[in-house]
């Protein structure tokens, strides 16, 4: 029962953050219009890009390191966090793209998110998912309160609000983890970058694959289209991410489980895939068309469902490859997916607008599915059956 409760709490926790961001976007657009709120989205795209770069694959690397050296958790955490913090001046790149006052608060937000994200490895390892849910909820209330409080749109105000909300999240997690009770021992070393580099490359390729469509829409189409597309794709990314949320409690155990146990977990995830995606897609259509009135045709939502479905069938394959030290295969697949999505989106966006971009994302997801399953067949003697493992 405890395991099911942990899965439930983590699924809620994992779903809450994108759901909160989704609701913030809805209320932001409703309150200030698509054009103004798109300016928030634009700078957040660059802030998250910088934060991800500074992250350097720390979560995945550290979780594996914690499992191997449980007696050195605090040392590993502080050494990695402080070593990566050397990269924080990357935030100054915002000065090249935004006015000075906007860039300064953008840099402040980078620092706050960097600190918050760094605590994630400890949250996952110690399975303090309730605390992260509480932190996300507090931050959400702060930002939503700011939206309702504001009579006029002010980009600086919302950057300050986001920074404050992430500061509250950091404080909440620090209280939960009680890090001040442990002796701070660390060593700033290049090894933090060397050891985390494979995970960073993997994560960067995957992250860019999941975000490249937003950058393309931001570049090629009007700001109002960016707001509409962000709402739509965020909804289906949340649906897609359910597969990952369910698996997070098993992350630190996956390295010890036998192939037979892993296959049983896979089959349970596969069985749940279609019902979750169908019900989720219907729910997204109801919200988008009956409450937000995006006026997208039904084919957008059918295509979105096909975007979300493949992740339920290849998520555990990714974890298996990491377990077996085959990160290069994941990188290769991510690069293929990124290239496919990028090329198709550029080719289709001018003629088919948002539908063309969504189609490019769908095709890249199914290519990822096929490549992971072909890799599974290649390393199994069960041939066709292994395609579903």
UniProtKB/TrEMBL annotation:
Protein name stated in the entry: Membrane protein involved in the export of O-antigen and teichoic acid
Keyword hit for Membrane: yes
Keyword terms: Membrane, Transmembrane, Transmembrane helix
Signal peptide stretch: none
Membrane-spanning intervals of the chain: 12-31, 37-56, 77-96, 102-119, 131-149, 161-180, 192-209, 229-248, 269-288, 300-319, 331-349, 355-374
Taxonomic source organism: Aquimarina litoralis
